[in-house]
Specification:
The protein has about 260 residues and is of the alpha+beta class. It has a domain of about 140 residues. The chain is built from four helices and 16 strands. A seven-stranded mixed sheet has the order 3-5-6-7-8-13-9, covered by helices on one side. Strands 4-14-15-16 form a four-stranded antiparallel sheet, with no helix packed on it. It has a three-stranded antiparallel sheet with strand order 11-10-12. Strand 5 and strand 6 form a beta hairpin. The protein is elongated, with a radius of gyration of 24 Å. The chain starts with a helix and ends in a 12-residue tail after the last strand. The N terminus is likely disordered.
């Protein structure tokens, strides 16, 4: 009987170690978690989840601010914040909603969407909306955004990008121009001036791509990480527990 117990214990330990070996999120800085009902895992990461040496697992710029009130986590693009509404780890897509317009029936867009140099790209099924706010002169035949009427008689307009009247100088006659991104299937050109708020509250979809410094690390089965102190993507967390400090190299035993 003792031999059988010892055998079962050894077998259980072996299975446990093997399960840990194939779990690329088992590292203390690579683990998955939930926030606002959204599963967050590599290459995204929770802000504040770093080692004592200031190292994080994930892509630079993909850190998310968690809340404890049930709201989705927040991703910052440039200096603007977006709710991280949905994510598909199979298709590498994420849905973002501008925190400035969330849950507003008549949102006033305040900034363009700026991706910067992050490994993100727009999906083909998104479109840009161009807003002109507080116009003092305007073509009389065009429908304006009535819910944004100005007490001084100024009007605001929204168009699918490129559809505004080309023979009118919008920049000269309007105080502000903002371009935002929405999903194409949420746009109805005939009622855009009243339905833009619904489209903006549905958010927009982006793809993420493999960060260039992380390609070899990921192909070898590792998770890429970075040094937050120097903001450099140079780490590779391997499934055997080792950490390669040059992100351009591969995990041992996988690739050279």
């Amino acid at each position: 009987m003792p031999k059988l117990v010892n055998f079962l214990l050894a077998l259980s330990l072996d299975l446990f170690m093997k399960s840990r070996a194939i779990d690329t999120t088992s590292s203390i800085v690579c683990f998955a978690s939930y926030c606002g009902g959204v599963l967050i895992r590599y290459p995204f990461w929770q802000q504040g989840n770093t080692t004592s040496a200031g190292k994080s697992c994930g892509y630079t710029g993909f850190g998310l601010a968690y809340s404890d009130d049930g709201r989705p986590p927040i991703l910052t693009l440039s200096s603007d914040t977006y709710y991280f509404k949905e994510i598909n780890y199979t298709n590498n897509t994420l849905t973002l909603i501008d925190t400035d317009v969330a849950n507003q029936t008549c949102p006033r867009a305040s900034h363009n969407v700026t991706i910067g140099d992050l490994p993100l790209s727009y999906r083909k099924l998104v479109k840009n909306l161009t807003f002109y706010f507080n116009c003092t002169a305007y073509p009389s035949a065009l429908s304006h955004i009535q819910c944004l009427n100005n007490s001084k008689g100024k009007r605001s307009y929204v168009f699918e990008e490129g559809d505004e009247a080309s023979d009118f100088d919008w920049s000269m006659n309007c105080e502000d121009k903002v371009v935002v991104t929405v999903n194409e299937n949420e746009i109805n050109g005939a009622s855009l001036s009243t339905g833009f708020g619904v489209a903006m509250n549905k958010g927009f979809v982006l793809n993420w791509e493999t960060a260039t410094p992380c390609a070899k690390c990921e192909i070898s089965g590792g998770n890429c990480g970075f040094d937050r102190v120097n903001n450099v993507q140079t780490l590779c967390y391997c499934i055997d527990g080792s950490i390669i400090t040059d992100g351009t190299k591969s995990c041992k035993g996988m690739l050279t």
